[in-house]
Amino acid sequence: MPSSRSNAGARAVAKQLKVLVPPSFHKMRISDELAGCFDAGGGVGEGAPGGTALVVSPFGKVWRVEVGRDGDGAFLGRGWAGFLAAHGVGVGWFVVLRHEGGGALTFKAFDTSFCIKEFAAPAAVMASRSRKGVSCKPQFIRIIYPNFTEKMIIPARFVKRYVTEEYLNSRTAVIFSPLGKFWQIELENDQSGMFFAGGWSQFLEFHGISKGDVLLLRYEGNMVFKFKAFGLSGCQKDFKTKDAGINQNIEMQQESPSPIRKRKDNDEKSSSEKNKRPKSSVTSLNAKPSLKKPDYQIEPSSWIRKEINNTYMLERFLPLSIEFCRRIGFQNTCTITLKTEMDCTRSWKVRGVAYKSYCCIRGDVWKSFCQENRLKTGDLCTFNIIETTLWHVTIKRSPTLY
């Protein structure tokens, strides 16, 4: 039945977050969107035929769980309580359900510390995941309470287990947005813990995240995070369709991360302040789309020019245009050799990382390159591409600002 198959494909990414209260252990309510992935007869009313979800366990076992409907809507029923009990999931935990297609349902569990539960899977399962490139990265969730709209504390258990000593005193973190943009968030550390602070409220406002929503943040290492957001219904928010004009502008500019700053009144801004202030990493919602062209060239000689506009770029990583990198053949993680003089033996082998939506050069060798060449904020680096993994770098120094 082609039509049914097409519908299943369209629903393959249905996802929902739920908090477990006592009644949820025997009959957990789910959205009609998620339940629709398992409807056997296409009915939507009370008593309509449901289906069976194949819930994939981290232990390598598949559990058959009833997907039913009653007067209050759709639910997971028979088999669900046994699945939760076998995995030690308790009251107050959060679960994230995702339909993977073919009737399969995967789940993540977050315990009362708000950190993801790491299940000890058998060696055979871990080997299979390794071959497929699947890994469970550190993650945590946070409900956006009213006191979390200006700054939000990172769970203490998460910090203790996953933030290494070298980053405990970090002043900034980077959150990668589904809209293809980096947000640099200032960190605060005190006796209470570690907080996302400066720029946090602007980040929430830009993405339409409000009180009662739930954030899921995945840690990529080096104080870099990716996130998903779930609304009051528990369904995942779709940012790909949110404000396409802003998204196009972001992709056009491919700017690097810099601190998010509160806007001052126009009469308080002097020309000197405008020159000294780092460029914002996010286009204003009220700003007109920029017509600025990407600062790179592909042929006949390929190069890309990047301004060092904040210390994060000197210490962590330098983001690059995804379009430029693809066109020069930089499409996978690799080692890139940087040279400031082609006839000199001195070189720096930096790590080049290609993600789905952006590329960057990063790591300790990149930091050493910046230090040894005395790069500072305001300097302009031009990377001339000799080969895909051999780049000649010229540096234009910025005049000192007083």
From TrEMBL:
The record's keywords, sorted A to Z, are:
DNA-binding, Nucleus, Transcription, Transcription regulation
| Comp. bias (Basic and acidic residues) | 264-275
Domain of life, per lineage: Eukaryota
One Pfam match, given by its short name, reads B3
What GO molecular function terms would the record report?
Answer: DNA binding
Where does the record place it? Nucleus
Which species is listed as the source?
Answer: Setaria italica
Q: What is this protein called?
A: TF-B3 domain-containing protein
GO CC annotation terms, alphabetical: nucleus
Fetch the InterPro entries from UniProt.
B3_DNA-bd (IPR003340), DNA-bd_pseudobarrel_sf (IPR015300), REM_fam (IPR039218)
Residue spans of biased composition, Polar residues class = 246-257
Where is the region Disordered? Answer: 246-293
Question: Do you know which CDD domains this protein is assigned to?
Answer: B3_DNA (cd10017)
Boundaries of every TF-B3 domain copy: 60-113, 137-233, 303-399
What lineage, starting at the top, does this entry show?
Answer: Eukaryota, Viridiplantae, Streptophyta, Embryophyta, Tracheophyta
Main localization of the protein? nucleus
